[in-house]
């Protein structure tokens, strides 16, 4: 039996009904999934690929639903005043192409048949959408609850992303790049991920707890620090102690203050000042030539400045939303595992000033085991 069609517009409208805080660049509602509804293990290549195939087919159907949304419905659902349809269509097209490539990667061991997550070989996006639609008839009764949950997650996640695409480039974000001086994680290899942590160092213990968690798990990440937070720590503890606390990790800049760098007249000073402090605090090899704009907001025409500074703009493609009061650490693990199965590679965004990454990440490491690889932060991103 075909799964009942989701009341898409009602659901998206409900998402938008939650008022946005004035300063937030985030979505009105954060997409949540429940990984426990998938009852097989994910910590092997085969287990990961099987869940990935089912997730991508579910996601493709949600992409198709979103493609059918009229401009007026998007304006109402995302609570925005204007919409860049070309940007929305560009994002949907690239996401469909990525989903096709990802399904093909996940289906390498599908020969032989008998697995409900394997569909006939897919040659193009049209075949993906056709197969994803008819595939819903093959979902076993025991997996219907998982499917309904992931389908709702996919629609809510796409509402988050399409809102960003609709606003771009008037409001810039991680949804698109302004040029080759910017990266977002799309170029990582299949099943490879990079950890990143923003907004630190924290005044309280969250940064140190996150660092201890990473050391215990033998993982590395890029810490995009705020210049003023780093200055506060250095003033209190001294540069040598601060540098030692980030041992084996990589350092980069999130600007001096947490504000949009798109319209701030001191945005260039914010970036050069933060890198100067990074270079006097940490060893040369520990500071990476990356700047991550707060909220992903940076000027469209900033390529010459970044080139002159020898810096790259470091975006992301897997947002944990761990700063949001709407989510628990368990929600964060669930959301990231769902996204990693759908996207299969990329840059994960967390915030070490909050306390969720330190408990969400060990769950993710444990559940995915050796099915995925974690990129060493010292390894430069391929562009
Ligand atoms: Zn930030």
Helical content band: 40-55%
- CATH H-level superfamily of the largest domain: Glycoside hydrolase/deacetylase
β content, as a range? Answer: 5-15%
**Tally of alpha and pi helices:** 13
Structural class: alpha/beta
Q: How does this model look, in words?
A:
By secondary structure, the protein is α/β, with parallel strands linked by helices. The chain folds into two domains: 6-22 and 36-167, no CATH class; 182-374, TIM Barrel (Alpha-Beta Barrel). Helices cover 46% and strands 10% of the residues. It is built from 13 helices and nine strands. Strands 1, 2, 3, 4, 5, 6, 7, 8 and 9 form a nine-stranded parallel beta sheet that branches. Helix 2 (45-67) crosses helix 6 and helix 8 (227-237) crosses helix 9 (239-245). The longest helix is centred in the middle third of the chain and has 24 residues, at 144-167. It is globular. The relative contact order is 0.16. Zinc ion (ZN) binds next to loops. Residues 198-199, 254, 258, 294 line the site of zinc ion (ZN).
């Amino acid at each position: 039996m075909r799964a009942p069609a989701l009341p898409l517009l009602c659901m998206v409208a409900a998402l938008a009904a939650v008022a946005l805080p004035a300063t937030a660049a985030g979505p009105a509602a954060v997409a949540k999934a429940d990984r426990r509804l998938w009852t097989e293990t994910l910590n092997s290549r085969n287990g990961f690929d099987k869940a990935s195939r089912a997730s991508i087919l579910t996601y493709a159907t949600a992409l198709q639903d979103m493609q059918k949304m009229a401009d007026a419905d998007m304006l109402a659902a995302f609570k925005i005043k204007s919409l860049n349809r070309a940007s929305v269509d560009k994002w949907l097209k690239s996401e469909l192409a990525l989903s096709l490539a990802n399904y093909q990667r996940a289906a390498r061991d599908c020969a032989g048949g008998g697995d409900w997550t394997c569909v006939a070989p897919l040659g193009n996006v049209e075949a993906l959408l056709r197969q994803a639609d008819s595939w819903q008839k093959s979902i076993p009764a025991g997996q219907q609850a998982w499917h309904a949950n992931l389908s709702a997650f996919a629609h809510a996640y796409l509402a988050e992303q399409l809102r960003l695409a609709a606003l771009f480039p008037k409001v810039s974000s991680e949804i698109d790049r302004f040029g080759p001086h910017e990266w977002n994680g799309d170029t990582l290899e299949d099943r490879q991920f990079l950890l990143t942590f923003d907004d630190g160092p924290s005044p309280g213990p969250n940064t140190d707890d996150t660092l201890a968690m990473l050391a215990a798990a033998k993982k590395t990440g890029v810490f995009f620090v705020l210049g003023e937070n780093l200055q506060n720590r250095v003033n209190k503890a001294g540069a040598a102690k601060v540098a030692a606390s980030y041992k084996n990790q990589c350092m980069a800049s999130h600007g001096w203050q947490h504000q949009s760098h798109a319209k701030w007249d001191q945005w260039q000073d914010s970036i050069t000042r933060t890198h100067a402090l990074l270079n006097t605090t940490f060893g040369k090899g520990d500071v990476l030539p990356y700047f991550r704009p707060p909220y992903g907001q940076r000027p469209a025409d900033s390529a010459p400045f970044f080139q002159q500074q020898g810096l790259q703009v470091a975006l992301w493609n897997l947002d944990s939303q761990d700063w949001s009061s709407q989510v628990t650490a368990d929600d964060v693990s669930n959301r990231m595992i769902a996204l990693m199965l759908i996207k299969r590679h990329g840059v994960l965004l967390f915030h070490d000033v909050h306390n969720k990454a330190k408990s969400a990440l060990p769950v993710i490491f444990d559940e995915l085991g050796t099915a995925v690889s974690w990129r060493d932060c010292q390894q430069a991103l391929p562009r």
